Amino acid sequence: MEAENKVTEAAESMNFLEKIIEDDLAAGRVPDGVVVTRFPPEPNGYLHIGHIKSICINFGLAQKYRGRCHLRLDDTNPAKEDVEYIDSIKRDIKWMGFDWGIHEYYASDYYDQLYEIAVRLIKEGKAYVDSLTPEQVKEYRGTLTQPGKNSPDRERPIEENLRLFEEMRQGKHPEGRYLLRAKLDMASPNINMRDPALYRIKFESHPRTGNKWCIYPMYDFTHPISDAIEGITHSICTLEFEDHRPAYDWATSIDGIEHAPHQYEFARLNINYFVMSKRKLLQLVKLGLVDGWDDPRMPTISGIRRRGYSPESMRDFVKRVGVAKVESVVDFSLLEFCVREDLNKRARRVMVVLDPIKLVIDNYPEGKTEMVEADNNPEDENAGKRLVPFSRELYIEREDFAVNPPKGYHRLYIGNEIRLKHAYYVTATSYETDADGNVTLVHCTYDPESRGGASADGRKVKGTSHWVSVHDAISAEIRQYDKLFSAEDPGAKTGNYLDDLNPDSLKVVTCAKLESSLRDARPGEYLQFMRSGYYMADSKDSRPDHLVFNRTVTLKDSWEKMKQKMGLK
RNA sequence: UGGGAUGUAGUGUAAUGGUAACACUGCAGAUUCUGGUUCUGCCUUUGGGGGUUCGAAUCCCUCCAUCCCAGCCA
After folding, report:
1. How would DSSP label each residue in A157-197?
2. What is the block-wise mean pLDDT of chain A (569 residues), using blocks of 10 residues?
3. CA A246 / C1′ B64 distance in Å
4. Cα–Cα distances in Å, from A159 out to A128, A176, A177, A369, A538?
């Protein structure tokens, strides 16, 4: 009940985009009252957590106002784009739980219309074919502080422009020879308005249009017109496009374009200890520093999925981050909080001993195995129970026994009684060590009256350990991931983000002992290894005969601090 | 040094002229068959300076800081 109230309260607080939409709706500025947004990725790479924010905003807004959100692949640069990316983008959006229905569009769908509009602009004297070289174009553009100057071709006769543009389309001119430009204002303080390029020549085969075109429209021309064609009401993008808004408004006000959508900008998502730029992510992959785009340490959606983050937790994260225009850096701990909060409710609890030592119960019958009942999830009464084999010889966590227990240590030590989770109370009696003095085995006795983990006389113990029966244990490879970078802002100090790579971002545990129910673990199932963290079987490498688990996130760990206080570390 | 934007606890986000708040983090404590969860409490905030006003995070002026823009990328 209380949780519901909180949600309601949070929903009452609107972000600036919601305010704009509600104002527009109230003022009747939205045709038929149907809000139409779009998510427009360029298919030139894998989607990452930054895109998750955009996906949630665009699809979320459409959902909230009962409108629709289009998926539009912004495929106007065939040199950089690939179908491989289109497939991954669609898969990732679906995984996030959003659906564009029939509204799957491509900027390339509009090439014919775009071409016609360009021709019309030429006819109206509003666009011209420029023969300046790329270097000259740059030179003529001026600088941030100095105005540009007009190209000598700016006053080229309309007929000649028409002929040249047609020849460009027919492939009669090499790349870079000509450029179709809008005739705006070379002296504009906004560089984007200094006669922006509309079309460039590119002899590049397109994934969808093949070799039909050898001229391709530029973003500033394509995007606003695509929005207009699709009837987008609110075109939402990131802050760096603010300077392009005048160009956007120019394009949507071209004669003959009926519908004039508006562009709004929000701050992109930044998270400390992460790099988000496609260039850097690509470099990490190419240098082999990670195991591909879907490495569980990568901030890509495919990496996040493989690591075991849930889409629900990602949506919650975006909601908590909020939407604003301030450039900000969200704390990684918020992400982890959201993941833990969601997984706590749904992850099946299992017992896994990561760093085992043997525990022998001297007064427990040899050769006997009994099944103890264990909750699958104490947070979910519908999760049911399972039976776990218990016997005389068990594995427990090395950390759960101390020869010289410091004050505050309430795990196993000689003379101390603890509970074996779901099973019995045991009291340590002696231990054995190897030549180096490392504990190899602990002897204990158990209280047969404490079956199920509670004693008949009601006495309490302070510690509870998880365990795995030696005879029934299975093995697996466990990959414990940590931050990929050890600096909040990778590269801030040295200028090279690779200098801040965390050398310990992956630790592989091979000696772990797992309860036998994990034999059937499959990718997609959320697991909690009790007292350790959340884990998921690896979708790439885990096989029935060689199980591999990825650590999604550790449990919140106050034990680490405790250890420091006690001088154990 | 042109243009565009943005400054609210450590972090993120609310409050649009009327008692500055929520979440995360951190720190205490309680509960607990996970040193998890849950619960309670605490810490810390309007970039600076002026002005308008009974009253300013909010309006005005000014200064400062930060981010974005000079692709035939998106």
Report:
1. -HHHHHHHHHHHHTT-S-TTT-EEEE---TT-SSGGGSS-E
2. 36 87 95 97 97 98 98 97 96 98 98 98 98 98 97 98 98 98 98 98 97 98 98 98 98 92 97 95 96 97 98 98 96 98 98 98 97 96 96 98 94 97 98 95 97 89 97 98 97 94 97 97 98 98 97 95 83
3. 29
4. 10, 21, 18, 93, 63
Q: Which residues of A carry out catalysis? A: 42, 268, 278
Task: Give this prediction's pTM.
Answer: 0.96
**Where are the extended beta strands (E) located within A62-211?**
68-73, 104-106, 127-130, 179-182, 197-201
Nearest to A186 by CA among A233, A143, A237, A135: A143
Q: pLDDT by residue (tens digit) across A494-503? A: 999 999 999 9
Nearest residue to nucleotide B24, by CA–C1' distance, is: A334
Looking at residue A465, what DSSP letter applies?
E
Instruction: From the CA of A389 to the C1' of B8: give the distance in Å.
Output: 56
Phi/psi of residue A532, each to 5°? -120, -65
Chain B: positions less than 7 Å from a protein CB are: 1-8, 10-15, 22-27, 33-39, 66-74
Q: How many angstroms separate the CA of A73 from the C1' of B3?
A: 30
Minimum CA–C1' distance nucleotide for A138: B70
Nucleotide with the nearest C1' to A321 CA: B12
Nucleotide nearest to A217 (CA to C1'): B72
Whether ipTM tops 0.95, in short, is: yes
Q: CA–CA distance from A173 to each of A165, A200, A201 (Å)?
A: 10, 11, 8
